[in-house]
Amino acid sequence: MLYYKYLFLLIPVILFSGCGISQRVSELQSEAGEAYDNEKFEEALFYYEEIIDLKNDRGHDVSGNTYYNAGMAAYETGHNRKTIEYLQLAHRNNHTTERSYYILATTYRKIDNLSLEITNLEAYNDNYPEGERIGEVRKRLFETYLESNNHDNALEIWPLIENMAKEHPGLLEGYFMLNKRLDREEKLEDIAHRLLAIDRDNKTALEYIAEKTFWEAENRYQQEMKAYEQEKTRRQYRQLLDALDEINDKLRTARDYFERLYENEQDPQYATYLMNIYIRFGNDERAEYYRRRAN
């Protein structure tokens, strides 16, 4: 009988304790919500962590919404580790949103975790194709695919962001580099010209067109001169003269691009190209000018 008497006395204490916890959690949730709404994020984070600790200590389940709110408060106050921890727990408890994927991707970028940044960008792209930040997410996803050498994925997403290239020349430059890595030579010149149309002094495009045009002219010159040396006939000479017109057109194009490059950056390599071009034009003064700057 004594055992039952003590058990009877203990039950109200347990019940009272349970009610006390519930009441305290309810108070903390109210305080946390008010602090968050008033953008007092440090205070809100403190309250949410109190709720999490209180429930974990007593073996109670913490809702995905609580973890989510804690993660967002942590993000607003610059706590990267807590942002990741709480938003991951929110996701595990089936509380995912467009913003939580975006914030996780952003935070992983801050701590230089490229793999998990990509994972969350992909999740956003897959789950929220009409999302508020879908353009920004796809742009960054393309950049991360380039950075991680995921060439196939980069090619796949390119059509979805191509229309953004006019405002973001770096995207088109990235697409140029992607095609260069994949040896898609037939696409490079067109991309380079498109890049120059939106960024007149783009170094990557200028160098590509200038060097390509120069070597086309130089190789053609060597080829035609060799043919003429082997067969010095009137017909061959006329062919040489016709070819020189085309060669000089290309050299003038190369000259213009290299001079633009040299104006922006006095690189001796550009001066060397310009020296050789002016030698072909028979302009000794300009050739000497660039020869002195090529050393």
SSE layout and pairing:
Layout (H helix, E strand, L loop, with lengths): L1 H36 L3 H17 L6 H13 L3 H13 L5 H13 L3 H14 L6 H14 L3 H11 L7 H13 L3 H14 L4 H28 L3 H31 L3 H13 L3 H11 L1
Helix pairs in contact: 1-2, 2-3, 3-4, 4-5, 5-6, 6-7, 7-8, 9-10, 10-11, 11-12, 12-13, 13-14
Give a structural overview:
The chain is mainly α. It has a domain at 202-295. Helices cover 82% and strands 0% of the residues. It has helices spanning 2-37, 41-57, 64-76, 80-92, 98-110, 114-127, 134-147, 151-161, 169-181, 185-198, 203-230, 234-264, 268-280, 284-294. Helix 4 packs antiparallel against helix 5 (98-110) and helix 9 (169-181) packs antiparallel against helix 10 (185-198). The longest helix has 36 residues, at 2-37. The radius of gyration is 34 Å and the shape is elongated. The termini are far apart. The model is unreliable at 1-18 (pLDDT under 50).
